User: Which sequence fits this backbone?
């Protein structure tokens, strides 16, 4: 069993009087690719924000390598949903990726080029961001996250609104990142075959409904989830 | 010829400065803030004139207060931000108009709103230079942060950038630019110069820096064209520049459409 790098215990999160997450606990092992699956409004983005320390839980705790997340937020990097980005902003891919290293400009140059190479965008680095396809833009967003030195990468619906070939390419890329030691938690509302690419699947619906290998989760939820009702996002 | 030198110089400087500041506002999607500040300067101008202070100082303070009030009233709201901004704009404009008779002021409201280049002094030019210096300091000192804020404002906040300070600095620079442009094009028509010249180059520029340069060049051409056309036509240059901004957007490819 690999080492636990991110541990969340008994998280309760609410917006005003509305409870969004109830008693959510999870542990991420180093060097694993985990899917966080749930329908829209299940609390996936909220959970990722809490795990990164952007949002405070009403109760419960998050620790990264035994340190409270408030004291080590830089160890956990959150790649946001694509809707949060202004893709029409006048910026090249290279400059966009470099924004990830804004807090540590000394290492920006080499880290930026390494991240661009890793996601396969070196040849497109001088293009404007809005000249890329949706899949390439997602890879640029991932490269921006990779520039930051981190222990855990949280990816908020990286496969939404991109075509299946781009999605498969992104999933392969995530698998490569895990093979070189990264720990990834990826939110998705995809119940399809793509789930088999993950080491582990956590199903969220305000609370954790299931947690285990893709096959085990499918079995345990077979009575609750209509397998035909999946989307490619 | 000599009497035209100062107005022409002022027009050209404003033509470069306003689009440069406008590029920041447009790329941060804060165009409405320019509109708000341009109207919110009026109460401050009136109070400053009444107390014998430089009207520009009153205008900047008042414009900044309007911007801060709108920001405060927007906080916690998910939608209706534009409605809040428009309400604050109307309130400040109304207050300014009310203060003029209440304080027994003799203000040339037309010149204030639409500009009067013939009244331009070296002091007005100095204000433009102060505004240009403030804008230059902001862009050069905080360039990467402004880019981050524009492309991903939530991410910028999450990564610990001083988002509120940056927005306050932008509001201050915008207020300085608007007040300094009063003499040339008036506080109302300045909105045209802040926005229209930005659009043609925005989709083609590969960086915020390049977008600022492109907008400034277009603004310079518009201002110079408007001014030179005003002399033979015997028309006020301010409104003419405003109309030129509108005409620019009617030219295909000048609205920043995708090519």
Assistant:
């Amino acid at each position: 069993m690999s080492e636990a790098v991110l541990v969340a215990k008994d998280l309760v999160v609410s917006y005003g009087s509305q409870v969004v997450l109830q008693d959510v606990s999870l542990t991420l092992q180093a060097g694993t690719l985990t899917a966080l699956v749930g329908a829209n409004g299940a609390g996936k983005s909220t959970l990722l924000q809490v795990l990164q320390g952007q949002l405070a839980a009403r109760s419960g705790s998050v620790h990264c390598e035994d340190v409270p997340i408030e004291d080590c937020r830089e160890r956990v990097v959150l790649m946001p949903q694509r809707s949060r980005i202004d893709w029409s902003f006048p910026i090249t891919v290279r400059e966009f990726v470099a924004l990830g290293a804004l807090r540590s400009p000394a290492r920006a140059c080499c880290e930026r080029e390494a991240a661009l190479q890793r996601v396969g965008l070196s040849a497109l680095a001088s293009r404007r961001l809005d000249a890329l396809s949706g899949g390439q833009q997602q890879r640029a967003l991932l490269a921006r996250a990779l520039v930051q030195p981190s222990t855990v990468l949280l990816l908020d619906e990286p496969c939404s609104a991109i075509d299946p070939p781009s999605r498969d390419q992104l999933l392969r890329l995530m698998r490569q990142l895990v093979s070189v030691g990264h720990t990834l938690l990826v939110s998705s509302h995809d119940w399809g075959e793509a789930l088999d690419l993950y080491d582990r699947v956590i199903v969220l619906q305000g609370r954790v409904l299931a947690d285990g290998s893709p096959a085990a989760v499918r079995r345990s939820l077979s009575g609750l989830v209509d397998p035909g009702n999946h989307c490619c996002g | 010829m000599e009497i035209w030198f100062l107005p022409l110089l002022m027009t050209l400087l404003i033509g470069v400065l306003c689009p440069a500041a406008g590029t920041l506002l447009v790329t941060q999607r804060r165009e409405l803030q320019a509109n708000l500040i341009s109207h919110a300067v009026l109460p401050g101008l009136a109070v400053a004139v009444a107390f014998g202070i430089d009207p520009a100082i009153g205008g900047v303070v008042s414009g900044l207060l309007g911007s801060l009030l709108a920001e405060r009233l927007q906080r916690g709201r998910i939608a209706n931000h534009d409605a809040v901004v428009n309400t604050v704009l109307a309130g400040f404009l109304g207050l300014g108009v009310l203060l003029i008779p209440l304080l027994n002021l003799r203000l040339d409201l037309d010149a204030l709103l639409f500009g009067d280049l013939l009244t331009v002094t070296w002091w007005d030019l100095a204000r433009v230079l102060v505004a240009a210096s403030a804008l230059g300091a902001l862009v050069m000192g905080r360039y990467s942060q402004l880019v981050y804020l524009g492309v991903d404002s939530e991410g910028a906040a999450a990564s610990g950038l001083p988002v509120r300070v940056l927005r306050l600095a932008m509001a201050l620079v915008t207020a300085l630019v608007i007040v300094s442009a009063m003499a040339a094009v008036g506080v109302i028509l300045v909105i045209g110069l802040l926005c229209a010249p930005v659009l043609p180059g925005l989709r083609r520029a590969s960086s915020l820096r390049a977008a600022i340069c492109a907008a400034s060049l277009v603004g310079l051409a518009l201002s110079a064209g408007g001014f030179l056309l005003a002399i033979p036509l015997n028309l006020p240059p301010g409104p003419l520049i405003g109309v030129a901004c509108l005409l620019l957007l009617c030219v295909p490819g000048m609205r920043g459409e995708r090519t």
In short: The two ends of chain A are 31 Å apart (CA to CA).
